Amino acid sequence: MANPKHTTNDFHPEALRLFDQFVHGDIDRRTFISKAGRFAGAFTAVGLLEALTPKFAYAQRIAGNDGCIQAQYVEVESPKGYGKVRGYLVKPVNITGKLPAVLVIHENRGLNPHIEDIARRVALENFIAFAPDALTPLGGYPGDEDAARELFKKLDQSKTQEDFVAAFHWLGQLPESNGRVGTIGFCYGGSLSNLLATRLPTLAAAVPFYGSAPPLEAVPAIKAPLLIHFAEQDERVNASWPPYEQALKSAGKAYQAYQYAGTQHGFNNDTTPRYDEAAATLAWQRSIEFFNQHLRTSA
């Protein structure tokens, strides 16, 4: 479950906007603390930042040693990217027949414990899940969210994108895979899911959560059906949706889009007060149904 101490109702809306700017690199820590003080309420500015920072221990749903899954870290060759990418591979135990696969794409902090837990949740829905760590060339997720964000800025995104392309192709070729691979991504991962849909003609389904649009001129190249989740209070991401939707319509692409009332960016992340249980539960249910529909069919 999420941190029981706080919800979005405990924070001034402007404090939440400033935190969103901070986690996406638009302002630094000093600027956040300087500006957030007037909206901190019962918190100090530093306490406000601490309260909004992910608490992984509150939200782990599936232990890494859960008897229903088998999980391991593997390295995938990525000759067009950084050479190799390390990731977290999770499969159900006692696989019978071929299973569809899902590429799980993290936020702008790398493969943290929350995304590993998401991969385990996907595997428990009877999929093969693989969550690569974009920070592999910089030593991997460092165990600290602030440090991870700083490392993320140092990545060459053209190489990082190739690492995820390599992971996608590798995942579809696993002996246990039926060859049909979807993506699910959050924030940065949502944006990358949108982008990969323009680059991967064999992508079978894409589920971006609050991700920015890909280059609009690339939209006609999309082959995969899309299930797109948005938060209502997310001006930065939502600004890219109207032209993206128009491009999808103009190109005749298959998509579904949902905006969840009253939610903040990151509403699916149950390690932070921005988590919205009702919206996250519904979005997850829709996502699994979407994958079942599009990934379990024959190619």
Describe this structure in words.
This protein has 299 residues and is an alpha/beta fold. 37% of the residues lie in helices and 22% in strands. It is built from 11 helices and 8 strands. The chain has helices at residues 13-23, 29-36, 45-52, 56-59, 113-124, 145-152, 157-172, 188-199, 235-238, 241-250, 277-295, and strands at residues 69-78, 83-92, 99-105, 128-132, 177-186, 205-209, 226-233, 255-264. An 8-stranded mixed beta sheet has the order 1-2-4-3-5-6-7-8, with helices on both faces. The protein starts with 12 loop residues before the first helix and ends with a helix.
Largest sheet composition: 8 strands, mixed
Number of strands: 8
Oligomer: single chain
* Uncertain spans: none
Major sheet strand order = 1-2-4-3-5-6-7-8
Distance between the termini: 37 Å
CA-atom Rg in angstroms:
19 Å
Primary descriptors:
single chain; 299 residues; alpha/beta; eight-stranded mixed beta sheet; 11 helices; 37% helix; globular
In short:
With 299 residues, this protein is of the alpha/beta class. The chain is 37% helix and 22% strand. The protein contains eleven helices and eight strands.
List the helices and strands and how they pair.
Blueprint: H1 13-23, H2 29-36, H3 45-52, H4 56-59, E1 69-78, E2 83-92, E3 99-105, H5 113-124, E4 128-132, H6 145-152, H7 157-172, E5 177-186, H8 188-199, E6 205-209, E7 226-233, H9 235-238, H10 241-250, E8 255-264, H11 277-295
Helix pairs in contact: 1-2, 2-3
